[in-house]
Design brief:
- The complex is a heterotrimer.
- Chain A is α/β, with parallel strands linked by helices.
- Chain A is built from 15 helices and 10 strands.
- An 8-stranded mixed beta sheet of chain A has the order 2-1-3-4-8-7-10-9, with helices on both faces.
- In chain A, helix 7 packs across helix 8.
- Chain A is globular, with a radius of gyration of 19 Å.
- The N terminus of chain A is likely disordered.
- Chain B is of the alpha/beta class.
- Helices cover about 40% and strands about 20% of the residues of chain B.
- Chain B has 13 helices and 16 strands.
- In chain B, strand 12, helix 10 and strand 13 form a beta-alpha-beta unit.
- The model of chain B has no long low-confidence stretch (mean pLDDT about 95).
- Chain C is α/β, with parallel strands linked by helices.
- Chain C has a single domain, classed as Pyruvate-ferredoxin oxidoreductase, PFOR, domain III (Pyruvate-ferredoxin Oxidoreductase, domain 3).
- Chain C has 6 helices and 6 strands.
- Chain C has a 6-stranded mixed beta sheet with strand order 2-3-1-4-5-6, with helices on both faces.
- In chain C, strand 4, helix 2 and strand 5 form a beta-alpha-beta unit.
- The two termini of chain C are about 30 Å apart.
- Classes of the chains: A alpha/beta, B alpha/beta, C alpha/beta.
- At the B-C interface, strand 6, strand 9, helix 10 and helix 13 of B face helix 1 and strand 2 of C.
Chain lengths: ~300, ~375, ~190
């Protein structure tokens, strides 16, 4: 199974963070999933969000982080329900505000790893302003956006990432708005680390999430997923398996994309997966810590 | 500290520092901005942190996030910003996260008159966010009281795990008076002390006083906080047997402690059949009128409410039994007077209102006494 | 009739935004409350813009408690702009003191107004128009004695930005001198 995903991900074997055979037993994080009350999850059978949750847990596990040092902050929506299933410091906030809550938490506790988990509507519509400003400040938060192109929890309304022409319950004649490119938005706003993959390419997600969480500055992971229950049904895209397959077929790795001749690049309609930005910029809480010591030192 | 001429907004900033506030998030808005300006300068000097957020929605969210991270937190705003903050004031109320929200009231609705004073947010402070919820609102009448009630706001917010609104106004916020502040280091407020082991910790359990101790994130108590209805460990629930006792606790915890929370100042005279009841800047006007009336030989009582919410029902009801008429001057169209009427009956209450940005005058109050 | 119990002197300083009226009000209140053993409350109102528009500072000075913080019927009005004069001259207490900048305010319908070229004096004395508010304080205290001269001197000096203390002292002195000339001519 791992080999199969690896092939699909066009990831070199040594690049992938392959789980070892006894990874579940070894993983303290997984052992501390909140199995007692919260399972089964609220997600529809076949939903991609669970894959992202698995990738997140594996990334935290790879980094060997202490559970107490990790905070998961989410907004509202299907994706935002993710933190409750995991045994970290978990904060389920209001719609769109995950990054704003996370900002206060990260500034209060710069030593903690703060991960904001959002859907596309959560992060980019109602929370769009917080998204660009958190990136601009380069606050040391990982923003994990699960992009399923639709408002799933409310029943399938068009979101800021719904492709042009696609149907939604509030776009019965097809969406007439162009979608946001999530990664490009984060790059323009100043994020230190930006990567995109899909729930089909789970090991790629592991790797990118691991790098993003390890990153000192603001990092963004766009995990492209699907909603077969609403988006798939309204647009006649088949079952969850069909939509998962489409992620395999309708995406292209950045490295492969860059080898294409310019005219093919221009004509490309596939989603490009890859790590787009990985730079060092001064991180907000570090700058503020310096400010405090300068202000206090100046008084002595 | 020496006597200084100080603005109400500055006194609020110093009160926050004294109370141990170490995080402020805000967005510039007249007439509250001086609070943010002072704290942007002073917080780093005490190791605290200031951030100017992208809007008031974010400011309110950030102070809740910071308190969950263990820092006592505050924001300051005025009408339009207070409207935006309502969303997460409700979150703080239901998730029981302590925080202080300063509202320096200006004339509304909407953009209104940014530099004109008002007391028009009395009802918004109580019911601005949707759903039944606990809230405390305190209204200072002087610069010194702006300091004292800011400290009190932090104490109440911690003690009762609730957002506290410091409901001041443009007059008190921008007014300068001579004050001598106490040594800031001598101020102490309630501190949460969690004694349970992490495996036994329940952030939302019932306790004798209705307020379970709060543990910050990142120190070993891994738990879930949500704006959904939740059980005593914080997990979302739709079970009525879990929701009902929790809702009952959250919505009655302030009533259970009302004697500590309802702060009022009384100046009663034996034999008075008339009373003035006011708060915030209008209490100054009322007191001016009171002195004139008494100098003219009239017996008049005065009740100043420092706590607006929860409404000091007992004190107002008792006043209603003392006197025949209660005059309520305020800079709105009678928002608090309606609450007084609820306690003592409509016939006993005389509304003296002004909602055009100008203060009620002592003469208006004196005229109401004659009527 | 204005209700008054404790002694209460109400001063209103009015002009355009940018003329420093609010700072003048603060300094007068500091002179009273910090350097003269009195009580004072200073309030203000201004338009939304930083420059231009109407700007008004009020100072209530008393030996006792000050409850209502705003001016009810001004004992003293200083008007540095025509708009301020028009808006507030009518609210002056009968027999109250009206001082206008004679170069900026046409006060022909207020024969009792004291006319002093406040801004011109500032420019002549310090070369800087922004010291007009300090000149005005000298004029006001010189004419009314609402606070002791020493108190206003200390208050001005304490508020003067570093390096401008002498300039502000001169401006204040020019105001006092103008007030003395008015008193002599009366």
């Amino acid at each position: 199974m791992s080999e199969h995903i690896l092939e699909a991900a066009t990831l070199k074997k040594e690049e992938a963070l392959l789980p070892q055979a006894n990874w579940f037993e070894r993983s303290e994080t997984l052992q501390k999933l909140r199995k007692t009350k919260k399972f089964p999850t609220i997600w529809c059978a076949g939903c991609g969000i669970g894959v992202v949750m698995g990738a997140l847990i594996r990334a935290i596990d790879h980094l060997g982080l202490d559970n107490d040092q990790v905070a998961l902050v989410s907004g509202i929506g299907c994706t935002a329900r993710m933190p409750v299933y995991m045994d970290f410091n978990t904060l389920h906030t209001t719609h769109g505000r995950a990054l704003a809550f996370a900002t206060g938490l990260k500034i209060a506790r710069p030593d903690m790893k703060v991960i904001a988990i959002m859907g596309d509507g959560d992060a980019l519509a109602i929370g769009g302003n917080h998204f660009i400003h958190a990136a601009r400040r380069n606050l040391g938060i990982t923003a994990l956006v699960v992009n399923n192109s639709i408002y799933g929890m409310t029943g399938g309304q068009y979101s800021p990432t719904t492709p042009f022409g696609r149907k939604a319950t509030t776009a019965p004649y097809g969406n007439i708005e162009p979608p946001f490119p999530v990664c490009e938005l984060a790059i323009a706003a100043g994020a230190s680390y930006v990567a995109r993959s899909t729930v089909y390419h789970a090991l790629e997600l592991d790797k990118y999430l691991t790098e993003a969480i390890a990153k000192d500055g603001f990092s963004l992971i766009e995990a492209v997923s699907y909603c077969h229950t609403t988006f798939g049904r309204l647009n006649k895209l088949g079952t969850a398996a069909d939509m998962m397959r489409a992620l395999k077929e309708n995406t292209i790795a950045r490295t492969a994309f860059e080898r294409l001749p310019p005219e093919e690049q221009a004509a490309n309609t596939k989603i490009v997966r890859g790590n787009f930005v990985n730079i060092e910029r001064p991180q907000y809480t570090a700058i503020y810590a310096n400010l405090i010591s300068e202000v206090r030192g100046g008084e002595k | 500290m020496a006597v200084k001429l100080m603005q109400g907004n500055e006194a609020i900033g110093w009160g926050a520092i004294a109370a141990g506030c170490r995080f402020f998030a805000g967005y510039p808005i007249t007439p509250s901005t001086e609070v943010a300006e002072l704290l942007s300068r002073e917080l780093p000097r005490v190791g605290g942190k200031f951030i100017q957020m992208e809007d008031e929605l974010a400011s309110m969210a950030a102070i809740i996030g910071a308190r969950i991270g263990g820092l006592k937190s505050m924001t300051a705003t005025s009408g339009p910003g207070f409207s935006l903050m309502q969303e997460n004031i409700g979150y703080a109320a239901i998730a029981e996260i302590p925080c202080v929200v300063v509202n320096v009231q200006r004339l509304g609705p909407s953009t209104g008159q940014p530099t004109a004073a008002s007391q028009g947010d009395v009802m918004q402070a109580r019911w601005g966010t949707h759903g039944d919820h606990p809230i405390i609102a305190l209204a200072p009448t002087s610069v010194r009281q702006a300091f004292d009630l800011t400290v009190k706001a932090f104490d109440f917010s911690e003690r009762y795990r609730t957002p506290v609104i410091l409901l001041t106004d443009e007059i008190i916020g921008h007014m300068r008076e001579p004050v001598e502040l106490p040594d800031l280091k001598t101020i102490q407020i309630f501190e949460h002390n969690v004694t349970e082991k992490p495996e036994h910790f329940k952030a939302f359990r019932n306790t004798p006083d209705g307020v379970p101790p709060l543990a910050p994130f990142g120190v070993g108590y891994r738990y879930h906080i949500t704006g959904l209805f939740h059980d005593e460990v914080g997990f979302p629930t739709q079970r009525l047997d879990e929701i009902d006792p929790w809702l009952e606790r959250v919505n009655t915890k302030l009533e259970r402690n009302i004697d500590e929370i309802a702060l009022v100042e009384t100046d009663y005279e034996p034999g008075a059949r008339l009373a003035l009841l006011s708060y915030g800047c209008s209490a100054r006007t009322a007191r001016h009128a009171l002195k004139v009336a008494r100098a003219g030989g009239r017996k008049v009582d005065m009740l100043s409410l420092l706590t607006i919410w929860p409404f000091p029902e007992k004190q107002v009801e008792a006043l209603g039994e003392r006197v025949e008429r209660i005059i309520v001057p305020e800079m709105n169209r009678g928002q608090l007077a309606g609450e007084v009427e609820r306690m003592v009956g409509r016939k006993k209450v005389v509304r003296v209102t002004r909602a055009n940005g100008e203060m009620v005058t002592p003469q208006m109050v004196l005229d109401a006494m004659e009527a | 009739m204005s209700p008054q119990v404790a002694d209460r002197t109400e001063v209103r300083l009015a002009g355009e935004g940018g003329q420093g009226m609010i700072l003048a009000g603060i300094i007068l209140a500091e002179a009273a409350a910090i350097y003269d053993g009195k009580n004072a409350v200073q309030t203000q109102s201004y338009g939304p813009e930083a420059r231009g528009g109407a700007s008004k500072a009020e100072v209530v000075i008393s030996s006792g408690e000050i409850d209502h913080p705003e001016v009810l019927h001004a004992d003293v009005l200083l008007a540095l702009s025509q708009e301020a004069f028009k808006k507030f001259a009518g609210e002056l207490k009968p027999g109250g003191l009206l001082v206008v900048d004679e170069d900026k305010v046409d006060a022909t319908d207020a024969p009792s107004a004291v006319r002093i070229p406040v801004t011109r004096l500032a420019v002549e004395t310090t070369g800087k128009q922004i010291t007009a508010n300090t000149v005005a304080l000298g004029v006001l205290v010189g004419l009314t004695g609402v606070v002791a001269r020493e108190a206003i001197e200390k208050a001005v000096s304490a508020r003067a930005p570093r390096g401008t203390e002498e300039m502000n002292r001169q401006a204040l002195e020019a105001g006092f001198a103008a007030a003395a000339r008015v008193k002599t001519n009366r």
